[in-house]
């Protein structure tokens, strides 16, 4: 009976945690369809591509006006002519999502240099497991770059036990994400997922986010329902299950007494 009671309590905690995660994801909307169909998907977070590209272009222009950089850039040939396109290629190929396994960041295949096929950069993917994360924090924009360009991008820094070493460029992070549209919600969801996974049972993506990708990719309720229950219906079911488990726990305690 003791083992059964422990299992019931553990399941109750899991449902409460999934309910917390469901509430966070319920308030999210995203337009990035890169992860559509991804197994174990919990939520996708959009980069503010336009703001990132605008900021990086401003920094690049300011840097190029510095004489030594201008000379070197001219010698390299491609950079002065293609730097705006290079920034666009690098920026718009970034994608990040929260999955059952952790934070998944993908830098998709993209053009570099002068845009020739022989200079293409291949797709890279990195997943940071929740149980390895030791810190996830947001650095709000402040100050200026090149003395005259206001910093406008929030930065999410994710650390693990193997990261954090300092160097000439500052501390080394496992993952840094600049320019997310909703950095605070990203941080909140990461910590909620970490707590849920620490309970010993991975969060079931179907329990917290059965329809979230369709919510943003289609405005109609019919399309939303094609992929499962609505957010509200899912939360109602989870609350009913939690209530039943509480009643079951109470009945077990009465039997023991």
Overview of this protein structure:
The protein is an alpha+beta fold and 257 residues long. Helix content is 47%, strand content 17%. The protein has helices at 2-26, 49-64, 67-76, 78-91, 183-198, 205-208, 212-217, 221-225, 231-256; strands at 41-45, 94-99, 102-107, 124-129, 133-139, 144-145, 149-150, 155-160, 175-178. β2 and β3 form a beta hairpin. It is elongated, with a radius of gyration of 23 Å.
In terms of topology, how is this protein built?
Blueprint: H1 2-26, E1 41-45, H2 49-64, H3 67-76, H4 78-91, E2 94-99, E3 102-107, E4 124-129, E5 133-139, E6 144-145, E7 149-150, E8 155-160, E9 175-178, H5 183-198, H6 205-208, H7 212-217, H8 221-225, H9 231-256
Antiparallel strand pairs: 1-2, 2-3, 3-4, 5-8, 6-7, 8-9
Helix pairs in contact: 1-5, 1-9, 2-4
């Amino acid at each position: 009976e003791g083992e059964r009671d422990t299992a019931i309590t553990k399941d109750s905690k899991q449902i409460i945690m999934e309910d917390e995660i469901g509430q966070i994801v319920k308030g999210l909307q995203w337009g990035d369809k890169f992860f559509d169909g991804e197994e174990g998907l919990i939520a996708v977070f959009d980069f503010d591509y336009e703001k990132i590209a605008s900021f990086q272009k401003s920094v690049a222009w300011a840097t190029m006006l510095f004489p030594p950089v201008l000379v070197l850039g001219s010698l390299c040939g491609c950079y002065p002519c293609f730097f705006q396109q290079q920034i666009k290629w690098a920026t718009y190929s970034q994608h990040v999502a929260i999955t059952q396994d952790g934070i998944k960041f993908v830098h998709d295949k993209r053009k570099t240099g002068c845009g020739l096929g022989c200079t293409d950069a291949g797709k890279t993917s990195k997943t940071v497991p929740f149980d390895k994360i030791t810190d996830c924090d947001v650095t709000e924009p402040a100050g200026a770059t090149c003395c005259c360009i206001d910093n406008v991008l929030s930065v999410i820094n994710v650390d693990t036990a193997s990261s954090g070493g300092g160097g000439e460029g500052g501390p080394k992070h496992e993952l840094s994400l600049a320019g997310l549209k909703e950095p605070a919600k990203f941080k909140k969801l990461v910590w909620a997922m970490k707590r849920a996974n620490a309970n010993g049972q991975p969060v079931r993506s179907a329990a917290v986010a059965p329809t979230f990708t369709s919510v943003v990719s289609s405005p109609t309720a019919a399309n939303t329902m094609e992929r499962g229950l609505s957010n509200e219906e899912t939360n109602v079911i989870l609350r009913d299950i939690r209530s039943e488990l509480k009643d079951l726990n109470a009945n077990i305690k009465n039997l023991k007494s």
